[in-house]
Amino acid sequence: MSDTDNDDSQNHHEGADVPGPRQNRGALLPLPPARAAAAPEGEEVGDELQSAYWMKWEGEAARTSVWRILGRLPAICRRVLGLAYRADARATAAVVVFQIASSLMSAFGLLASVRALSALFAQGATSERIHHALPSLGLVAGLMAAQGLLDFGVARGQAALTPKVRRAVEQEFLRLSCHVRLEAVDDAAFADEAHKANDRGLYYMRQAVPQLVSLAHAALGLTGAAGVLAVLHPLLLPLLFLSVIPQGYAAVRSARAQFLSHSRYSTLQRRIRLFTWLLLDRDSAPEVRASTAQRALLEEHERFARRIEEEDARLGRQEANVALWGRAVGGLAVGATYAALAWMTATGWMPLAAGGGAFLAIRSSRGTLVSVVLAMHQMYEHALWIDDLERHLERCRALQPHRTGRRLAKGVKTITVTDVHYTYPEAGRDALCGVSMTLAAGSTVAFVGANGSGKSTMAKLLAGLYVPTKGSICWDDTEVREVDAESIQAQVAMVLQDPVAWPLSALANVTIGAGTITEADPQRALAAVTESGADKVIASLPQQWSTPLSKRFKNGQELSGGNWAKVAVARGLYQDAAVLVLDEPTASMDARAEHAVYEAVLHGERRQDRITILISHRLSSVTSCDMIYVFRDGRIIESGTHQDLMNHTTTDGQPGEYRAMFTLQASAYQTPPAPSESAERCVIAARDAHLMRKPGPECAAGHTTRADAEAGPGPKHDRTEKVRAPDGPAECASSPGSGLAAGSGENEGADAAPFPRREGSR
Ligand SMILES: Nc1ncnc2c1ncn2[C@@H]1O[C@H](COP(=O)(O)OP(=O)(O)OP(=O)(O)O)[C@@H](O)[C@H]1O
Fold this sequence. Notes:
Radius of gyration: 38 Å
Structural class: alpha/beta
Number of strands: 10
CATH superfamily of the largest domain: ABC transporter type 1, transmembrane domain
Helix content: 55-70%
Strand order of the largest sheet: 6-7-8-3-9-10
Number of helices: 23
Mean pLDDT: 75
CATH class of the largest domain: Mainly Alpha
Low-confidence stretches: 1-23, 43-51, 682-762
Largest sheet: 6 strands, mixed
Bound molecules: adenosine-5'-triphosphate
């Protein structure tokens, strides 16, 4: 180990306050330790996960008293019954009736067995005794057959009921969850609750009916046996308790050990699954290989696999021990019971046949008791998860979108935003404070500004995804609060920077924009993909429109980020909405594709009935918008056309925010060393000139510029037009320091960048 290493480890042990030779003085963080565990070590691997949502009720049944479990059981059973009844009343009634009848058959069977035994143990010749026993034996057989049929009925009823309950609850959960207001979904605690409800609550809800049936089966069986014993001789009842209580105690201990172990086990399973997933997943595959992380991950996987192995073995041993203990204690108790039984029959307290019946009842009760104990623990613990699921559903009901029963009329002429404020739930400050704007149909509007300044929030308010905390948004004369939020959402198409890659066919990936994955308007779909440039992408797929866009499917294809973006733009266009919001959709597209999208969306056949809102950090793409709003800290600080904003100065004579940002971006495309201020001004002025469709300005040092290259696409854009300074023969592109690209107007790659690339930079 080097001296430096020694120093490092010393620092680590002595605390970060003691600066060492390589201590990162003044940094936000102390130096990290030289060795760290990838995951917790030691006995309690689950400790750090105790607060994880999926650990909440894990092993709870083992920590709760049996009396409490028994106390809650009737309410749990009532709730499951209610659920089943709502899903299918007939099947539920059938299951209940058949189950009770089956238990009665079992009890009558026991009584008939006692009668048969009485006949068989009576005085007289064997043939005579058999003859007398025959009717009872026949009855036993008949009752057993009836019980078999009734159990079949229970199984059929349960088979009909369980999938119905599952479907009903799952659909209710999904229907409510997917409509919940967006601001609730943003909340991490709500998201945890939703996951918990999905992977625990729903899972246990699905098992609730079969569990209730087996609990009822076992409990009724026990009750039947106890009833028969009470009929045979009242003293047999305490004898039954004497025999089953030790057995029951052993069963409770075993069930609790299982529950606790399961809790540890599932923590380990979650951990190990994480490593399995990292080793197998497609997304992590390139990085796992590139960083040669296989060994480290495999070692970690093995560490957990060994612990699971130990946990399995430990549980097995523990179960065997508890079973042995239970058998020993239970055996002693049963031995004592049988001895008491023998004494009672020998001394004439009880007829021999009743003793035989008691023997049968006690034997069958012992097995049934174990089932009852396990089932009641399971039902108790699962009910806690189901409680959470029901609370979540209740919350979802309260968080459904704003509904008034009134729908927004189709289309809009003007959207008027007046003094809008918006604060995210639990946020310390307003995301928007006092925003006002007017958006007219047929116009293109840009929202620009620094990260976190409120652009996307404004777009989401316009889309009806959030309701203003204060202020108003009117679609023509209708205030958004007066109509169903979903009727606003249906009129706004949003294309986001990270669009969803729907694992559906290429066509469905387009039509889902209009809320369908099974129907299409072929003409509209073709027009949308052509405008967005996705036509070439889809044409190159093996099954074109029907190609599944996911590698998870057979013959599925994966698209590159840029191609997904084109499909997303097509989706937005296909929606044919009154408002189209493009929130940096072209960030992952190549320069040509980006140019083509802006050409189509901003300058193509601009629909007179659509408001197009463009959110972009690349200011070259917004220059031709009819209106640009500059956001800062949730307010609009400047607004106007590109030209207005480039002329704007603040009260203290400084360039406005837009102009400052624009100039900064422009400077990144200048040839180093940084261009002279005059050249920069020339670039900007030339662009302005182009936008104003008038000759370019005079530039110092004879700069002449190709306005089209920097101004971005324009509707009547003469792409070969050159703006010349009157006295400068040389073009900016060839002028040192101008930083402008030479080449034809077809150089779309250069057009799409904030400023054209330098010659030779590609
Ligand atoms: N879901 C959310 N929950 C809480 N706060 C949020 C949420 N989304 C955004 N914010 C906050 O609201 C403010 C405005 O965010 P917004 O996303 O609208 O900014 P933006 O201008 O679109 O930023 P960017 O350019 O980075 O996309 C920021 O302070 C942000 O942290």
